[in-house]
Every structure is written in structure tokens, then in C-alpha cells.
From TrEMBL:
GO biological process terms, semicolon-separated: D-xylose catabolic process
Quaternary structure, from the entry: Homodimer.
Span of domain Gfo/Idh/MocA-like oxidoreductase N-terminal: 4-121
Name used for this protein in its record: Trans-1,2-dihydrobenzene-1,2-diol dehydrogenase
Signal peptide as annotated in the record: none
InterPro entries reported for this sequence: Gfo/Idh/MocA-like_OxRdtase_N, Gfo/Idh/MocA_domain, GFO_IDH_MocA-like_dom, NAD(P)-bd_dom_sf
Length: 334
């Protein structure tokens, strides 16, 4: 039986998720409903992606009994309220990154998922790419010896985009793209809490972070150096440097299609689609969707590759980074 998806929001990322979903076998995945606050927009979205049911509110989607899991693609400033509403209706949920505005909200959502006994995951799609699978396998085999330094960078010219710089929209480099660099380091160090977090950067005129460099210090003289910016494009590479070798992601570290190990490159072609998409390598969202299906089939409540603890640590570190930079949102309690 196909996993029946409900799509919450009809924006760009939801479009790309649908395109990716349609690269998977129809007997395994089916979008059965879409909800948006603008019903006209929802109807257009449904027509584009052949979705049978259309709702003009997120609450109507929550009441639909024919949905196995909801994909939440709304702006992260309202993730908490929207996700909480679905969890309270005992719906399985995956929610786009960042999962919430801060770790307090993340803990609240995890507590609700536990209370209502449903599957819940931060949709950190990077972790489900074949390249990331390969990296996890190599690290478990100690293919590059003892890890000493991890580097990751993500820079994209976005300062002209209101969502990226608006404080009222939860803007800034860290929450939007820096989280990809952080999650990479946390994956490499297997969810270990760093001994210290040091952040330096600059703020945009709106009060959000425009460029940030983070140093995570771990026991045993291990370190991660991570840089993100919404001011300029960067090579967007990542590297894991060990005592006997190096693993490199040559580009698009958040959605990679190749990995270099000991100087030898291996490529992982993406699923193909001719439909228009808005973001780089978006058909790779299909890896995430299939992972979620497998979790549901196994009766899991959280992903082994993007666990609740992973999301909580990620957001706790981002809270500390913002504190050091002086970035504060209305959602941050005193």
C-alpha cells in the first residue's frame, strides 16, 4: 500500500518535494491532499501535481483521516504552531528545517510527538543522500583513521531576498543555510556534544546574521570549523580530515552527488525529472521521502539518521551561536 502524503503549504519547497515524490513508484508514494491558507493557490498546486483533495486551511488537512503523514513546508516562524496542531491530531509529521526557531520550541514539539505516539522528524534532507550513507559507512570502518578536523561551508547571495534578511521572518544565514554545515559536523561526530562553541560574525542592517564562522571544540583535540553567509557565493564544500586520509564533498555539501575518498571520486546520479524545480538537486528529496516510508513501515517514531536528539542538539548549538552574535527573535524567551 502506498504511503499517503498530505502537503502543508503550496510554496517553492513543497513544489520541489512533490516533484521528487513523483520520481518514486506510485505504488509506494501518493500525495492525497494539499492545504494552503490561500485556497486558490492550493487549487493551482493540486492541479499541477494531480492531488485530489484541496483544503483552504491547515486545520482541515489535520482532520483528514486518509493521510499517513504530513509534510510541513511553511515558514519556520510558524513551524511550532503548525506542527503542534498536526501532532495533537495524532498525525505523523516531517517538518522542513530548521525545525523551529529555538531549542525550547524543538523540545516542546518532541514532547508532543512522544505524548501522541507519532512519527516526527526534522526534514534535514541532506542526511538521506547516498553520499551521506557512504560517509557514515566509511566512518564506521575508520577508513580515514581518527578524525581530527571537519570543515564545511555554505554561502549563497541572498541578501536581496526578504525571507533571508527579514527579522520578522526568522531570517539570517544560520537558520537558513548554516544549519546544513552544523548538522554535517554533528553527524560526523555522531551526535557528541562539543566541549565549547565559539562564533564570530557580522549582522545585517535588519539585525539578523549575514556571515558566521563557528568553531566546535571536541575532546581529544578534535575540531569543526563551519562558515555560512547570505552575502556571497562560496565553493560550498566539506571535508573530514583523519589521521590516515580525507573524505571530501567537492560541492553542494548539503545535497551532494559525489564524494572523494583518498583522492578517488565516486558519483551518485540524482533521480531524473523534467518538471520545473526551484532549488539545487531537489529530486534528492525523494531519498528523504523513501526513508520516511521505511520508518513508518517499521513502526518507528523517530529516524535513526535524524533523531530527536540530533535536532535538539542542533538547535541548542544554534541558540548559543545566536546568543554570541547578538541575534534575538521574538520567539526567544528571556
Amino acid at each position: 500500500m502506498a504511503t499517503r502524503w498530505g502537503i502543508c503549504a503550496a510554496g517553492k519547497i513543497s513544489n520541489d518535494f512533490m516533484v521528487a515524490l513523483q520520481t518514486l513508484p506510485a505504488q509506494d508514494h501518493q500525495a492525497v491532499a494539499v492545504a494552503a491558507k490561500d485556497q486558490k493557490r492550493a487549487k493551482e498546486f493540486a492541479k499541477t501535481h494531480n492531488i485530489p483533495e484541496v483544503y483552504g486551511s491547515y486545520e482541515e488537512l489535520a482532520r483528514d483521516p486518509n493521510i499517513d503523514i504530513v509534510y510541513v513546508g511553511v515558514l519556520h516562524i510558524i513551524h511550532r504552531e503548525v506542527v503542534l496542531m498536526y501532532l495533537e491530531h495524532k498525525k505523523n509529521v516531517i517538518c522542513e528545517k530548521p525545525l523551529a526557531m529555538n531549542s525550547t520550541e524543538v523540545k516542546e514539539l518532541i514532547a508532543a510527538a512522544r505524548k501522541y505516539n507519532v512519527f516526527f522528524m526534522e526534514a534535514m534532507w541532506s542526511r538521506f543522500f547516498p553520499v551521506y550513507d557512504q560517509i557514515r559507512s566509511l566512518l564506521s570502518q575508520k577508513a580515514i583513521g581518527d578524525i581530527k578536523v571537519v570543515r564545511a561551508e555554505f554561502g549563497s547571495n541572498q541578501y536581496h531576498v526578504p525571507r533571508a534578511v527579514g527579522k520578522e521572518l526568522g531570517g539570517g544565514a544560520l537558520l537558513d543555510i548554516g544549519c546544513y554545515c552544523l548538522q554535517f559536523a554533528l553527524m560526523v561526530f555522531k551526535g557528541e556534544k562539543p566541549e565549547s562553541v565559539t562564533a564570530k560574525g557580522f549582522l545585517y542592517e535588519t539585525g539578523v546574521d549575514e556571515t558566521v564562522t563557528i568553531i566546535l571544540q571536541y575532546s581529544g583535540k578534535r575540531q569543526a570549523i563551519l562558515t555560512c553567509t547570505i552575502m556571497v557565493a562560496m565553493p560550498n564544500q566539506a571535508a573530514i580530515c583523519g589521521s590516515t586520509g580525507m573524505i571530501q564533498i567537492p560541492s553542494c555539501m548539503w545535497c551532494p552527488t559525489s564524494v572523494i575518498v583518498h583522492g578517488k571520486e565516486t558519483k551518485f546520479p540524482l533521480p531524473h525529472s523534467s518538471k520545473p524545480m526551484h532549488f539545487t538537486n531537489s529530486t534528492g528529496l525523494s531519498y528523504e521521502a523513501e526513508h520516511v516510508r521505511q520508518c513508518l513501515l517499521k513502526g518507528l517514531k523517530e529516524s535513526p539518521f535524524m533523531s530527536w536528539a540530533d535536532s535538539e542538539l542542533l538547535h541548542t548549538i544554534m541558540d548559543e551561536v545566536r546568543k554570541q552574535l547578538g541575534v534575538r527573535f521574538p520567539q526567544d524567551k528571556a
